[in-house]
Design goal:
Layout: H1 23-26, H2 42-55, E1 78-83, H3 89-97, E2 101-106, H4 110-123, E3 128-131, H5 135-141, E4 147-153, H6 174-180, E5 181-191, H7 194-205, E6 210-212, H8 218-221, H9 231-238, E7 244-250, H10 258-261
Parallel strand pairs: 1-2, 1-4, 2-3, 4-5
Antiparallel strand pairs: 5-7, 6-7
Bound molecules: S-adenosylmethionine (SAM).
Length: 262
């Protein structure tokens, strides 16, 4: 892996993060995963250069909070966040179905960002903002209880034990997800990796802020109708792996501190 930079296929002027360079490294955070796949086609580069600046989420200085109310031209009744939107098909479909919701999508893989920008253009969406970088930067900037639905679909499973700490649904990020989720908000996640599934359920069961909404096996074996298929789901099914689809509700109440967890 390794972060790509200027000269490695990014459009001229492409800004990876609203934070000053090195801010994340100083906090000891490393982003795992690819930034760039196959070289962008000229049309994708042009689309990114021309359209991403208007679509890109402007993060405040480190430590300041993001003002969600002024993010979109028209007021929005709620805000939904997708972490790791991949090629953006789920996010674009949700945004097209719900123009009254403001969507924020985070994805450091620039080829995926280019695909979402194309979908936004094709569907003429005006309710999506993109953070083409690490979702943890957005989580840090979001006000408490500001997100009504949060998607982390097919996060990288990092199957080797020594890589488990890289898993997005894990002890580092769950308090941040619980903090930004409003009372009653929903976390939707999916995986086709049995090891990660067990890990997710263990990690989420350990946090009193989350309640798993499954009551019967079909609740997690079948994708709900308002949950469009993603590329990774299609890949998993084609390879004969059966994904699990999980919905968790943010229980009302304050964030539980580490001392209270022991
Ligand atoms: C296995 S892919 C799944 C993509 C998509 N959700 C799907 O279901 O097709 C996981 C995605 O998460 C992204 N990702 C990994 N770490 C991330 C982070 N810290 N913030 C935002 N996205 C991240 C990766 O770049 C990758 O595109």
């Amino acid at each position: 892996m390794g972060a790509a930079g200027p000269g490695q296929g990014y459009p001229v002027g492409f800004r990876l993060s609203g934070h000053p360079p090195g801010a994340e490294a100083k906090r000891g955070r490393i982003l795992y995963g690819r930034r760039l796949g196959r070289p962008l086609r000229p049309a994708q580069r042009r689309r990114l250069s021309e359209q991403l600046p208007q679509l890109q989420l402007a993060l405040p200085e480190t430590g300041a909070q993001l003002e969600l109310a002024g993010l979109f031209g028209a007021p929005k009744r709620a805000f939904w966040l997708e972490v790791g939107f991949g090629a953006g098909e789920h996010l674009a479909a949700q945004a097209a179905a719900r123009p009254d919701i403001g969507f924020i999508g985070c994805e450091p893989f620039i080829n995926g960002v280019a695909q979402l920008v194309a979908l936004i253009e094709e569907k003429r969406l005006d309710n999506v903002r993109i953070h083409p970088d690490d979702a943890r930067q957005v989580l840090d900037a979001l006000p408490d209880a500001s997100i009504d639905r949060l998607f982390v679909l097919f996060p990288d499973p990092w199957p080797k034990a020594r890589h488990h700490r890289r898993r997005f649904i894990g002890p580092e990020n769950l308090p941040a997800l619980a903090r930004v989720m409003a009372d009653g908000a929903e976390l939707r996640t999916a995986t086709d990796d049995v090891g990660y599934l067990r890990w997710m359920l263990r990690q989420l069961a350990a946090r009193p802020e989350f309640e798993w909404l499954a009551r019967r096996p079909t609740d997690w074996r079948e994708r709900p109708p308002d949950w469009p298929e993603t590329r990774y789901e299609a890949k998993a099914l084609a390879a004969g792996r059966r994904p699990a689809f999980m919905r968790f509700r943010r229980r009302s109440g304050r964030l539980v501190t580490p001392a209270e967890m022991t």
